[in-house]
Amino acid sequence: MISALDTWIVSLVTFIPLAGALFLLVSPRRDRDIRIFALVVSLLDFIFSLHLPVYFRRGPAGFQYEVNLHWITNPNIHYHIGVDGISMWLVVLTTFLTPLCVLISWNSIHNRVKEFFILLLVLETALIGVFVALDLFLFYFFWEATLIPMALLIGMYGHGRKVYAAIKFFLYTMIASMFMLAAILWLYAKTGTFDFVAVQTAIRNGQVENFMAAAPWLFLGFFIAFAVKVPLFPFHTWLPDAHVEAPTAGSVLLAGVLLKMGTYGMLRFNLGLFPEQSRSNAWWIMVLALIGIIYGALVAMVQPNMKKLIAYSSISHLGFVVLGIFSFTPAGLEGATFVMLAHGVSTGALFMLAGIIYERRHTYEISEFGGLATPMPVYATFFSFVVLASAGLPLLNGFVGEFLVLSGTFRDRAVYGILGATGVIWSSCYLLWMYQRVFFGKVHHEVNNTLGDLSMRERTALWPAAVAALVMGVAPLLWLNGIEPSVQATLGPITQMASKVVGQ
Amino acid sequence: MNGLPQIVPHAADYIRLLPEIVLSIFGIVVMLLDSVLDQHSSQRTLGAVALVGALATVAATLFQAQYPGLGFWNMIQVDSFSVFFHFLVAAVTALVILTSYEYMTVQEIRAGEYYALILFGAVGMSLMSSAVELVLIFIALEISSISTYVLAGFRRRAAVSSEASVKYFLLGSFATAFFLYGVALMFGASGSTNIHVIGGVIRSGQIPLLAYAGIALMFVGLGFKVAAAPFHIWTPDVYEGSPAPVVGFMSTAPKAAAFAVLLRIMFEADAPGRTGLIWVVAALSMTIGNIAALVQDNVKRLLAYSSIAHAGYLLIAFAALPNNGIPAVMFYLASYAAMNVGAFAVISHFANAGERYVTLEDYSGLGQRSPLLAAVLTIFLLSLIGIPVTGGFFAKFYVFSAALQANLVGLVIVGVLNSAVASYYYLRLIVFMYMREPRGEVPVMPVPAGVGTALAISLGATIYLGVLPGRVLDYASRSVGELLR
Q1: CA distance linking residue A116 with residue A157, whole number of Å
Q2: How many CB pairs under 8 A join A and B?
Q3: Domain count across chain B
Q4: CA-nearest residue of chain A to B474?
Q5: What is the pTM of this model?
Q6: How far is Cα B157 from Cα A3, in angstroms, rounded to an integer?
Q7: How far is B52 from chain A (nearest CA, A)?
Q8: Interchain pair B389, A182: CB under 8 A
Q9: Which residues of B touch A115 (CB under 8 A)?
């Protein structure tokens, strides 16, 4: 029983949401039933996904729960999926956030409800697919497949300049991923396979002709697609627009999971396939990451719009991830993975909180609020907890990852570590200052006095995120012991190479 | 028999011409019935007869596939290659007849010869793909062209339709004249009009200079038919003016047939000087088509420019090596036919009486008013962009990878950049459908059975080609061996 489940669990987790979406497609438009159904499906998927970490063998590196079937013979495409310690947690993060998204959209979406939840579930399948695909083609397919539901969610259910934001998001990522497609096609033309492991082996054994000449370009092809997604400075301009206009659930998944596709891609493909190029390009990538950390934080500080502030804070936090990845130290990579997860939880929660207040006041302008702690004490408590988690308070989830990243970066390049550390200070500045402006002082706008505190449903959506933030901060080893072997496996060829260089 | 040519054709010869014969018979039956039936009720009967004719042709094609070989004194050749195109043409014909069924009633066009002309056009297109004799190809080209010239002018109360017809006719005859001139020069250069003989002469070493001129002129004529730049000027006007189902027809079936002829001329006859010629035309078609499409507000014109761009993508494969290029072209044509016929079925249904609703504005809020129709059109548009799990993705994929294997990196880069640009204008239509408020005055009719069936089939084909492209591609690859004997 367990062994059959072991084989099919990844497929199951990936496609349960899609099956739910297909069922919704043919079901009648009874909004309440649709919401409940979407919640049940996403919860079910979360429960199934817990199988992955529970039965994951912590010792060995490499992929587990693998399935490798022929799909198309020409071109040679396999249905090859599986997870390692890194992608496993990203899958769980996705399945964790989706039910919360359903809960938070319960009342805020009242128009075209059926389409909304169909898109949300399709998006979940595509996101999980990105993390589990081990065939380059399959990966590209899921990668592109995330675009359409996300763009539609922004464009159909967003606010303000939603169409502009949706198109900008779509075109930015679409054009960037064309470069990745070209690189994938090149690899296929030379190796005859899309299989990640096979391509990796072929490259390591030097069986790919003309590889040395093409590798810098291939590296860049992958890198641009990922950098736009992260987004790394200067490719970040789509993100604030997309976030501000997106509906709350869209923002949660966008910041919580979609951005991680980019950093995951760098970790898996840039480091996995092109270790040498990663090493030689690391210095400028780290510079861009540092610019992102500091610039994102400074811009966040002056934002009058709460959601835009959180969006820029994502740019800053994701800069840490990139910094950690390209430090090539175990601590840096583990930290980067941990920041991905922590940021998913805490920024997801921040966006939910912003969405809750938007539902009540229909604005994100910080100046419209003030003194909210009096009418909404529970809301204020949750908010302060999440803000502290996001700012990196020890014993909460933000601290562990950032600490590991910085200690890894110090070991690699001390100056970068020092500059990166300032990011931690900045982030507490803008977050706490925002908190002060929104919650403390007197209520200047009469209408704010009448705001109701959190409802049962909203609390249900926030509690899991808060608990996760605490547990991740107190017991990070639960996560790190799965991540560590995979990090070592990724770093293996890079450190070997480094020692070879030193040996000469 | 003293080496004298045999004068009476064999029975096998007729089998090798079976689809064309079936189509002609049904076309004639439609014409005859039209004169005996009551004018007001004839529409449905004639449509049904024509549909049966198209389906019978599909059956005839499948039957014919078991008897490959040359027929009619080496003038036509039945092989996997021509069977593929016969099937494609017959299937497109059937789908277009299904779409036209309702359209003719809504537009109040009462003319039985409409269906007859579609069938006769299909005769020409089928014959184009099986003919291996340049003069016969020319005749087939004329049969197909003349039918489409008339079909383009079928909304006779609309001035744009007549304009389309005349424009298409004048420029089209000019182009076929080019083709004929090319045939004449080729005959001068090689002493034959048979493609196999020409191929033999060209492969024997000495390539006469005249052959280059012949190829270039034939390419001009066919380039017009497939709407490749710089011979594309007619396309937007003709597509805008013609009845929408006819556009669905002439943007796919004649195009496929003309590409079949091009494949035979370029690969079977091993035309010299191919790469340079194609490089320029492909790059031009993609770029001009996509850039002009960016600013279109009429959906039919938008898809007209997109079809120019798609001709460009297709031509990339002609510059590649035959073993990869030919199957890529064939696969591309099949998936393009599926998605474009489908898209035009939606457009012709939505256009309503007098084709009043064909601008992007009219599509505002279709996603709310008719979710199913909008979703189907979205899938066709995503396929035209080339998003995975649709036929359009693998079509582009095979073309680009064929070109990469022939080291045409420059052309692939032009193509990839173009597909990025193209995604913008298809997306624009999707944005109008989903992200704009509906406009009250645009009516959306319930989808009739005919259009519904056509949509279901083309949607099924688009998805099938996107999920399991293997079988069609394998078939296409097999036919390469037969083509290059």
Answers
A1: 8
A2: 67
A3: 1
A4: A74
A5: 0.86
A6: 70
A7: 33
A8: no
A9: 367, 371
Contacts of B301 (CB under 8 A, 6+ apart): B236, B239, B240
Question: CB of A15 within 8 A of CB of A78?
Answer: no
What is the C-alpha end-to-end distance of chain B, expressed in Å?
28
* CA dist list (Å): B77 to A421, B16, B111, B126, B263: 75, 7, 35, 11, 14
Beta-ladder partners of A83: A64
Nearest to A263 by CA among A195, A344, A196: A344
In angstroms, the Cα distances linking B55 to A256, A440, B61 are 53, 76, 10
Nearest C-alpha neighbor of B193 from the set B75, B44, B277, B272? B75
Total Cβ atoms within 10 A of residue B178: 20
CA–CA gap between residue B419 and residue B425 (Å, rounded): 11
Other residues' Cβ atoms within 10 Å of the Cβ of residue B234: 21
CB contact under 8 A, B474 and A74: yes
* Residue B37 domain boundaries: 11-483
* Residue A305 three-state SS: strand
Under an 8 A CB cutoff, do A171 and B423 touch? yes
What whole-number distance in Å separates Cα of residue B33 and Cα of residue B37? 6
User: Do B278 and B209 touch, CB atoms closer than 8 A?
Assistant: no
Taking an 8 Å cut-off on Cβ atoms, the answer to whether B367 and A167 are in contact is: no
In a domain, B1, yes or no: no
Which secondary structure element, helix H or strand E, spans residue B35, and what is its range? Answer: helix B18-36
Looking at the domain assignment, is residue B15 inside a domain?
yes
B57's enclosing H/E stretch is helix B42-64
Q: Which residues contact A323 (CB under 8 A, 6 or more apart)?
A: A286, A289, A290, A293, A332, A336, A405, A409, A416, A420
Measured in angstroms, the CA of B152 and the nearest CA of chain A are apart by: 36
Q: State whether residue A132 is helix, strand or coil.
A: helix
C-alpha dihedral sign at B17, B19, B23, B25: positive
Q: Does B387 touch chain A (CB under 8 A)?
A: yes
Q: Which residue of B has its CA nearest to A74?
A: B470
pLDDT in tens, chain A (504 residues): 567 788 888 999 999 999 999 999 888 888 889 999 999 999 999 999 998 888 888 877 778 888 888 887 777 888 999 998 889 999 999 999 999 999 988 888 888 888 899 999 999 999 999 999 999 989 998 998 898 899 889 988 888 888 888 888 888 888 888 889 888 888 888 888 889 988 988 888 888 878 888 888 899 999 999 999 988 888 888 888 888 888 988 899 988 899 999 999 999 999 888 888 888 888 899 999 999 999 999 999 998 989 899 999 999 999 999 999 998 888 899 999 999 999 999 999 999 999 998 888 888 888 888 888 888 889 999 999 999 999 888 888 888 889 999 998 888 888 888 888 888 888 888 999 999 988 888 888 888 888 888 888 888 989 999 999 999 989 988 888 888 888 888 887 777 765 555 444
- Domain membership of residue B226 (yes or no) is yes
User: Which residue ranges make up each domain of chain A?
Assistant: 274-504
**Could you write out the three-class secondary structure of B100-137?**
HHHHHHHCCCCCCHHHHHHHHHHHHHHHHHHECEHHHH
Q: Kindly identify which residue of chain B lies nearest to residue A114, measuring between CA atoms.
A: B371
B77 closest CA partner among B91, B65, B89, B87: B65
Say yes or no: B388 contacts chain A, CB-CB below 8 A. Answer: yes
Per-residue b/e over A334-367, b at no fewer than 16 CB within 10 Å?
Answer: bbbbbbbbbbbbbbbbbbbbbbbbbeebeebebe
Flag if A141 and B389 touch (Cβ within 8 Å): yes
B366, B427, B437: best to mutate for the A interface, most A CBs within 10 A: B427
Nearest CA in chain A to B387: A144
Work out whether strand B69-71 and strand B76-78 pair parallel, antiparallel, or are unpaired: antiparallel
- Decide if B371 is inside a domain: yes
Q: Which of A153, A123, A116, A140 is nearest to A37 (CA)?
A: A116
